[in-house]
Amino acid sequence: MLNYDLVVVGGGPAGMAAALQAHEEGIEKILILERADTLGGILEQCIHTGFGLHYFGEELSGPEYAGRFIEQVYNTDIDVKVDTMVLDISADNVVTAVNNFDGLLTIQAKAIVLAMGCRERPRGALSIAGSRAAGIMTAGTAQKYVNMDGYMPGKTVVILGSGDIGLIMARRMTLEGAKVKAVCELMPYSGGLTRNIVQCLEDFGIPLRLSCTVVATHGKERLEGVTVANVDEHLKPIPGTEEYIPCDTLMLSVGLIPENELSKNAGITLDPVTNGPVVDEYRETTHKGVFACGNVLQVHDLVDFVTEESKLAGLGAAKYIKGEKAEDGVVHTKGENGVRYIVPQNINRATDKDVKLYFRVGRVLENVTLTVTCGDEVLLSKKKRKMTPGEMEYITLKAEVVKHLPADSTIVVSTKEA
Amino acid sequence: MEKRDLICVSCPIGCAITVDLDDNGQVISVTGNTCKRGDSYARQECTHPERMLTSTVKVEGGRLPVVPVKSAKPIPKELLFDCMTEINKVTLTAPVKIGDVVLKNILNTGVDIVATNEA
């Protein structure tokens, strides 16, 4: 059995930032386990720019952003095993993994950071009628085909879902000569960033059809077309609005799901809204010494925030290993009136840092008063012009404010429209 | 005189901006924005819109068959497809490093196309 102070599961932006931060805090024996054949995670296929505007103050492509961290990792004595699949995490923090070189590996860790990222919601989760013709794939799969494998998955495309990956792929396919006929979005608003709607769709005259979905796919061997229809306020297709669009490719960009099979098997409590672990302000899960960060914890819009969150988890793991993580009862957090969830779900009252409460709203809200309360006490209040489900928000709570709250009390983040 | 409707991308609010242009394409007025950033975004968009261009080029002998590239600076929006044609003519030979110039001064824009990953 190998022994490490810290084992990081996943070598994407989250895992690398957490490992580097722990290293900076003086943690000596760190191991990153990565399933793919290189570090970098999903950024390797995200060749568009827009990464790093917050963190580096520069507009980088995904591989460039990842490259900066990969270089830092290899300039330290952090150990890395790629092509390595983690199978299990035990109650006493033994990690079981497997690869071609070592065979079966067991690693005793003092602390573990979960940084497995997320995966796309597949077709099977949507129940669209039709046969299993070739040409139906998630937008991320198409992105890998085009950007890493170097071939085009189709010539005429319909995209279902207006998440950022779908919007980015609409532009990418268009630049490579394909015709993107429409992006259909079930909801009355887009789930993507405004910048992407303008620069990926409007720039190329690609129609965004809101309150619209794909109700059937046609074709047996290869996709020949899809039937789209408008939906009512209950998101049910409206009879009579069906329209046939010929296409050879249907891309799905219908949401991301944190990849928490390992966490579930380890008995870690998950938040039913985020589908990620329940964590404290340093991103420690309900399993002592196991931390989580990045898209495995909550699906982020910007990698810059993943890096920030992961550094926090790396710092927390380092504190845990050194026995310096303060505990003096926790307060809980909860979202109400349109606030769907809060990360972190728990905050240690003895925390030594101001705490950013991250959240998303459930629908588009305008002229909002955002309040943070505990019992009858208003801790914070802030006005916002507009909030949308597509953009993660945060509000910062001072450490000294948390300190004075009773143990086991609940902090509520709530919105009110004027 | 021409009217142009834009959605501002400067922040999540996404203001609906209307720009009035004279016959020479000069901006007369910007309305609908709620901050200064919206004003400058709208002026830039109506006079000389620019975009970053990213794509891939073929590479021989690399880990993968293609390597990603970007324009080192934004290029005029109307040249995006012409630039794609030029980029698609290129085949590199490994090794390629991040930042290597793949195409110098593409279409006389003064902008280089550079590699954004190793190959």
General description of the model:
The complex is a heterodimer of chains A (418) and B (119). With 418 residues, chain A is an alpha/beta fold. Chain A has 8 helices and 27 strands. Chain A has helices spanning 13-24, 62-74, 139-149, 164-175, 194-201, 261-265, 303-321, 399-403, and strands at residues 2-9, 30-33, 49-51, 60-61, 79-81, 85-89, 94-99, 103-114, 118-120, 136-138, 156-160, 179-185, 208-210, 212-218, 225-230, 243-246, 249-252, 256-258, 290-292, 330-336, 339-343, 346-348, 355-361, 365-374, 377-387, 393-397, 410-417. In chain A, the strands form 7 sheets. In chain A, strands 1, 2, 5, 6, 7, 8 and 19 form a 7-stranded mixed beta sheet that branches. The radius of gyration of chain A is 22 Å and the shape is globular. The N and C termini of chain A lie far apart (60 Å). The longest helix of chain B has 12 residues, at 36-47. Chain B is elongated. At the A-B interface, strand 4, helix 2, helix 3, helix 5 and strand 25 of A face strand 5, strand 6 and helix 2 of B.
